[in-house]
Amino acid sequence: MSQLSRLARRMWHQLEPIHAVLYFSPEGFDEAARLGYDVESRWPSYFAYRTAPLGPAGAHLASAASYSFSPHMIAEHVPAVWNTASPEQVLQARSRAVDRTYRTLLGDRVRTSEMKEAAELARRAAESVSVAGRPLAGANLDLPWSDQPHVALWQAATVLREHRGDGHLAALQAAGLDGCEALVSFAAIGAAPVANFAGRGWSEQEWREARERLASRGLVDADGQATDQGRALREQVERMTDELAAEPWRELGEARADRLAQLCSPALGAVFEAGLLPMTSTLGIATVKAPD
Question: What is the DSSP letter of 222?
């Protein structure tokens, strides 16, 4: 694994929580409720917030962007979410939610020179990405930048996160893993317990059939645990994901990336201290090591 790919993975660990907190924060749910969304489940607001940059996306477009979610589950929410609020209204609420979330987490620290510097570095990295084959990254990059540094930092982290995510989907497809197989193979290497993936909407039968398909390829054993071949395939996916995510960090350079990570530490720490994110992430952060 190249030094640049390792840097891409390290920066993902730094920026993913900064992005993801929106989908779990009380402020995020409050703004969604004000629009009229049912927030007993987080999924209506999740799909609205995440796909709004794409415009009034239908079920197929949302499924294309949210590869590991069951298309049947997505269709329960999209395009119905646009009957509650337009994408433009959702984007305005999303910005308010990010602003409120980070003011709650950081207080006066949202106005420091360090926050401004972090936003400028993150924006530089985000604006350097190529959006070819990266619809979510491109859609977020088309949005106007906030003049509030903490919101702009979140926007940049989101572009970088979606740029990586779009590349990850390409890596999964190159490995011949469909949406459900991607989760089954991920659980099989111990990235997260199987129960943690229930929110993605796949039925027990779909999960079982995906496991059977993987078993027929020699990727999991009879107990659903990854074989050596299965682990090698997942390492291939992670390696390709890191390689495809390296572009903005090549542009920013290691020294400035390290500075960005340092500047983001207060926000990252505040997110974890608030306890808003799940204890065991289905993303595999801190549980899946970088390939050699």
Answer: T
